[in-house]
Amino acid sequence: MLPHNHPFDEVVKTANQMIKEGFTVYQKFTCIHCENRLTMEEPNIFFEAGTCDKCGKETNIRETGCNYLAKMEI
Fold first, then answer.
1. Are the C-beta atoms of 33 and 54 separated by less than 8 Å?
2. Sign of the four-CA dihedral 43, 45, 46, 50
3. Contact 61, 33 (CB under 8 A)
4. CB 68 within 8 A of CB 27
5. pTM, full prediction
6. Do 74 and 23 contact (CB within 8 A), yes or no?
7. Residue 13 to residue 51: CA distance in whole angstroms
8. Helices (DSSP H) in 1-74: which residue ranges?
9. CA gap 49, 59 in Å, rounded
10. Beta strands 58-60 and 49-51: pairing type?
11. Cβ–Cβ < 8 Å for 11, 64
């Protein structure tokens, strides 16, 4: 598991609870190829794979783990 990443299923479970509480959640992951840290543009959706905007290669996020950024509008 890369730094800042946690097991996919655990992250999704926690993030879904935060979404229910009114947070907007953005998935974050680290490219396995170039270690670029990325944030998905679509909120409240968790993807099992992502393509790096730096190197163009795909990362299997389910295998490498992920994290999220939570934002609460007040």
1. no
2. negative
3. no
4. yes
5. 0.92
6. no
7. 23
8. 8-20, 61-64
9. 6
10. antiparallel
11. no
Q: Is the pLDDT of residue 3 over 90?
A: no
- B/e letters for 16-38, b = 16+ CB within 10 Å, e = fewer, are eebbeeebebbbbbbbbeeeeeb
Residue type at 21? E
* Per-residue pLDDT tens digits for 44-53: 999 999 999 9
* Interatomic CA distance for residues 23 and 21, integer angstroms: 6
Provide mean pLDDT across the span 27-31. 97
Number of CB atoms found within 10 A of residue 6's CB: 13
Helix (H) or strand (E) holding 24: strand 24-30
Domain ranges of the chain: 8-71
Residue linked to tokens 């609870």: 17
